[in-house]
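A reminder from the course coordinator: this example appears on the midterm review sheet, so study it carefully.

Given structure:
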């Protein structure tokens, strides 16, 4: 039910309620008078929109071009989805087989649906809502016959507003075909631009763009299973076939994948998506399939997986590779093998966690290095030899308690994390001052660093600043 200005109206009905004489827009009190045991639920437009978006995403098993119908969803009018199946129907045995399969699956999911396939969005919209009331909930209009199929339908099949439909009825125009004989120059002045535009779109005389729910990847491979699969072996085998098909398409355009998305569509109408990146462009099918090996176990097939797709939404140029047979290359690191290792580590831990350190022009320890992509260009930076630095540098120096014999001497002992350390060797101090010439000069006070070794042979990097002691790093 739906609250409209304080009146409770019926918004949508099931078959039993419709058979009992109820209709959308009827007052709830009138409905209960006709059906005393009427069961109702509050309309939730936001949740309906989310459910419709999930259903549109699930329809990606048929085509990546899916969208929620912006013209549907009125009170009692039902919601709609738009699918562009151009070039996809052959995967399901043709357009008629695709429509029958989609209608049957929607019925199993509990949806009452009517479907139509036509040359244009407007023709398919009108036919689905006004020409699929027979025993078959779907209809396929052969190419070039949309004009004849639309002719007997009411003008509302052109996605007109209620006011536009009433105006046409007053002029006695009760079918779409009646508009064909009217000169186009007379339609807009009398009925407004909406009618002329919708008619031209339905007949394919004016363009209409379908904006998909998600960005359509330019390179995608699809695998439809004859029967739902639930075990790991056929899923892995399907992934290998998808990787080979995708790489063939990439090779034809001299491209390599930088990001991959694996999507599985389950019998229950849900889907699961896995995404990962590569450190370098790649179109090695074995390598790409291995990247998903550790993640396939996390996919719950449920009652079975029906369709799998593998897409490369991000690609980069990759020319043909040639093997180097010269013995001079023996002992060198193969960059392709290194890229494969980095990709496998990135697939397991996240590509953002696999990086290398490059030097940064700064004498402050915490600023002297920065992260860079593992296989990115090194640029002009190079590590310079200087005073030794600890293997492990703390992100934030930790305060310690230290005792020194004289103010400028290294500590004789210090306490760190509740453990007392006796210093047997020390070197320093090395003074590091703030970078006063920068907008952010760093620490407010100069630091005096010492390398110290305790009685157990462990070495530490300490510094004194403003009369307090801190531990900044650990040597190997």
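Designed residues:
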């Amino acid at each position: 039910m739906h609250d409209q200005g304080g009146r409770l109206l019926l918004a949508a009905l099931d078959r039993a309620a419709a058979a009992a004489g109820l209709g959308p827009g009827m007052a709830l009190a009138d409905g209960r008078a006709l059906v005393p045991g009427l069961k109702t639920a509050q309309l939730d437009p936001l949740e309906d929109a989310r459910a419709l978006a999930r259903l549109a995403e699930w329809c990606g098993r048929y085509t990546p071009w899916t969208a929620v119908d912006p013209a549907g969803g009125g009170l009692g009018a039902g919601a709609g989805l738009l699918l562009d199946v151009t070039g996809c129907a052959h995967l399901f045995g043709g357009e008629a087989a695709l429509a029958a399969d989609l209608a049957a699956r929607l019925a199993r999911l509990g949806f009452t649906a009517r479907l139509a396939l036509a040359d244009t969005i407007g023709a398919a919209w009108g036919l689905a809502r006004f020409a699929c009331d027979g025993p078959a909930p779907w209809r396929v209009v052969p190419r070039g016959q949309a004009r004849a199929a639309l002719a007997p339908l009411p003008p509302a099949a052109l996605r007109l507003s209620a006011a536009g439909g009433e105006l046409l009825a007053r002029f006695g125009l009760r079918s779409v075909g009646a508009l064909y004989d009217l000169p186009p120059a007379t339609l807009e002045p009398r009925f407004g631009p909406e009618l002329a535009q919708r008619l031209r779109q339905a007949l394919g005389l004016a363009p209409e763009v379908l904006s998909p729910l998600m960005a359509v990847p330019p390179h995608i491979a699809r695998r439809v299973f004859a029967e739902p699969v639930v075990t790991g072996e056929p899923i892995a085998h399907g992934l290998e076939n998808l990787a080979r098909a995708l790489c063939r398409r990439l090779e034809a355009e001299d491209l390599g994948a930088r990001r991959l998305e694996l999507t599985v569509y389950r019998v229950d109408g849900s889907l699961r998506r896995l995404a990962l990146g590569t450190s370098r462009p790649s179109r090695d099918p074995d390598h790409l399939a291995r990247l998903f090996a550790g993640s396939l176990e996390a996919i719950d097939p449920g009652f079975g997986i029906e369709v799998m797709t593998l897409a490369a939404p991000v690609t980069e140029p990759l020319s043909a590779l040639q093997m180097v047979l010269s013995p001079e290359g023996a002992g060198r690191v193969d960059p392709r093998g290194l890229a494969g290792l980095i990709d496998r580590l990135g697939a397991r831990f996240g590509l953002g966690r696999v990086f290398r350190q490059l030097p940064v022009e700064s004498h402050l320890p915490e600023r002297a290095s920065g992260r860079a992509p593992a296989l990115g260009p090194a640029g002009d930076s190079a590590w310079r030899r200087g005073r030794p630095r600890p293997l492990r540098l703390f992100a934030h120096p930790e305060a310690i308690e230290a005792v020194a014999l004289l103010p400028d001497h290294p500590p004789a002992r210090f306490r760190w994390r509740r453990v007392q350390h006796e210093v047997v060797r020390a070197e320093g101090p090395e003074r590091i001052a703030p970078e006063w010439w920068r907008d952010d000069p760093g620490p407010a006070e100069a630091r005096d660093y010492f390398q110290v070794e305790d009685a157990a042979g462990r070495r530490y990097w300490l510094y004194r600043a403003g009369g307090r002691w801190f531990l900044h790093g650990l040597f190997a």
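Residues 404 and 410 are 6 Å apart (CA to CA). The chain has four domains: 2-34, 49-202, 220-317, 392-474.
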